[in-house]
Amino acid sequence: MDHPVDATIDAKGKKCPMPVLMASRGLKSLQPGQVMLIEATDSGSKSDIPSWARDTGNELLEATTVDGVHRYLVRKS
Amino acid sequence: MTEAVADPPAHPLMQPAPPPEEAAPEAMTIVAWSGDLDRIWPTLILGSTGAAYGMQTTIFFTFWGLFPLVRDDVRITGTNAMTKALAGMNRPGISNMKLSKLHMAGAGPRMMAKLAKDQDVSPPKELLEMCVELGVNLWPCEMTMELLGLRPDQLIDGVGEPVGAATALSAMSRSQINLFI
């Protein structure tokens, strides 16, 4: 799936809870419908980012891992 | 005669998550009673994450928990000999907190800071700043501030007005998550 990305959050190297905090901060500057890419290397993000996206009512479009980097696409609702 | 066999109930872990309006708590209140590094650190992790979750998040700081809110450049707090001596023996500031175990005269926290730095774990000071930025209510307890000789102007920017126990309880009564750390 290809989605146009409106903002990218680079949380690579950061440990819990920073990827979620950075994602939350990044999402504030987006408009509803816009898509944010979050890149993280923390394994905890594999459960944290999907939970956070679901519980905040936003949509996790995609979660992939490429070369040890977890990539999440979240659409702001 | 044949009977329809009912499907076995799904294992709780296999059931789909409830819709967000049921799943996501709306408010969390943490009572930060301890100034220990190994307690205030998880308090700030949970507090900042709560705000990132969109929860109305409040941390009520009381007793030893007040000292991490004092600005790092304030060496001595206190309004009389006893409360000044207290600050002398219990250095205020988020960067000066002690470990509850293995403190080893300050070697423990230095090792912990090095481990955190090497592994890119955010230190308490950065998490406290994130709490301010993400809009966590940081409420110092008015009575214990006076008891321990702390003034509002000695606290970091972003801390709310000192409040009483009733205000804290009011927040807790509206919170789905209440923690005493």
Automatic annotation (TrEMBL), chain A:
Query: Which SUPFAM superfamilies does the entry link to?
Result: SirA-like
Q: Where does the record place the UPF0033 domain?
A: 9-33
Entry coiled-coil feature ranges: none
Q: Which domain of life, per UniProt? A: Bacteria
**Which PANTHER family does the record match to this protein?**
SULFUR CARRIER PROTEIN TUSA (PTHR33279:SF2), SULFUR CARRIER PROTEIN YEDF-RELATED (PTHR33279)
The record's similarity note reads: Belongs to the sulfur carrier protein TusA family.
Report the protein name in the record: Sulfurtransferase TusA family protein
From TrEMBL, chain B:
Provide ranges: composition bias, Pro residues: 9-22
> One Pfam family of this protein, by short name?
DrsE_2
Where are the stretches annotated Disordered?
A: 1-22
SUPFAM superfamilies in alphabetical order: DsrEFH-like (SSF75169)
Return the protein name.
DsrE/DsrF/DrsH-like family protein
Species whose genome carries this gene:
Intrasporangium calvum
